[in-house]
Every structure is written in C-alpha cells, then in structure tokens.
Design goal:
The chain is α+β, with helices and mostly antiparallel strands and about 180 residues long. It folds into two domains: about 100 residues, no CATH class; about 70 residues, bsu07140 like domains (CRO Repressor), CATH 3.30.240. The protein is about 55% helix and about 10% strand. It is built from eight helices and four strands; from the N terminus they run H-H-H-H-H-H-E-E-H-H-E-E. The protein has a four-stranded antiparallel beta sheet. The longest helix has 24 residues.
C-alpha cells in the first residue's frame, strides 16, 4: 500500500523541474492560441469530425512537450494549473485591452450583403458557399437573395438576417469568453 501511495502522489524531482513544466506549458499555450487564431473563426463554430481529431491529436502531441519525461500526478497538475491560470490571465487581458481583444477575438465579418456573397471575406475566413447555404437553411431560408445579411460572428457562428427583418441592437457577448 505504501508504494502505491508513493506512485500516486509522486512529484517532479526538484523546483527547477516544476518550473520547466510551467515554462514549457506556457510556450505551448501561447503557440496554440496564436495558431488557432491564425486559422480563423471557422475552427471555433464549425468543427467537423476532422477538426475534433486534430484537437485530440494536438492535445496528445503537446502533452509530451509540456511535461516531458515527468509522468507524475503533480507534474500533470502543475501543467493543468498553469493552463488554467494562463487562460484566466488572457481573458482578463482581452477584457481590459481593446487592441488585444481585436487581435485575438476579432470582429464579426459580413459574408453576404443584400443577397450577394462577399467572396473575398469568405475566402479570407475559410467559409464555403455550402456552409453559407447551410446557415440559410438553419434559419428557414432557401435562397441567398432571401437574406439581407449573413455575419460570421467572433465565436464562429453565422447570424442570418432575412430581408425585411427588424434588427434590434443588443450588447455584444462572447460565448467563448464568459466566466459564469
């Protein structure tokens, strides 16, 4: 029983080893935040089976980079705690700095205006005509010309506003950034 407890509650060999886990985890976090932001909003709201596989493989590949040879419970907890703290700090930075918010969260993008596709915006965001048409069907519309506006929101979802709809302003919200 004693050896079992030692295995479960083992820890990194030294404080410098724990510090290396924190440092490597921080680098991996920054790399993934930048990489996911670079690949656009579609990755957030329109995840396919292949995107989910990518996330699982990414998680597995970076796990080794974060903790290295350390397979202890404490090493894993140090890495997880580092990720949680970094995520909270990033949220606070985004909340307080409009420039950082613009760079990391982005702005909504108009994909269709007055029934006409905005092809440059679609290409830049990696959105296909089929995805726009799927968003139309989800909102009960069958043709592009039935929509006044389609907007790719910052969370990756598409808002569809039919012709003649009354639009009410509301405060912006970010599903991905809510803390409650």
């Amino acid at each position: 029983m004693d050896s079992w407890l030692k295995l479960v509650f083992s820890h990194p060999d030294s404080w410098p080893a724990a510090g290396m886990i924190v440092l490597k985890t921080s680098v991996v976090y920054a790399f993934l935040v930048g990489g996911l932001r670079f690949f656009g909003k579609r990755q957030l709201g329109q995840m396919t089976l292949y995107d989910i596989v990518l996330m699982v493989v990414l998680a597995n590949s970076v796990q080794n980079a974060m903790v290295g040879e350390d397979t202890t419970l404490a090493g894993g907890l140090i890495s997880a705690t580092t990720l949680l703290i970094l995520n909270r700090l990033l949220f606070l930075l985004i909340k307080r700095n409009k420039k950082v918010e613009h760079e990391l969260v982005g702005e909504p993008v108009i994909l269709l205006r007055d029934g006409k596709l905005q092809r440059q915006a679609m290409e830049r965001e990696g959105i296909t005509r089929e995805q726009v048409q799927a968003a139309l069907r989800e909102h009960g519309l069958l043709e592009l010309k039935a929509a006044e506006l389609i907007v790719l929101e910052v969370d990756g979802s598409m808002s569809v506003i039919p012709h003649g709809a009354v639009v009410h302003r509301s405060r912006r919200h970010y599903r991905a950034l809510r803390t409650n």
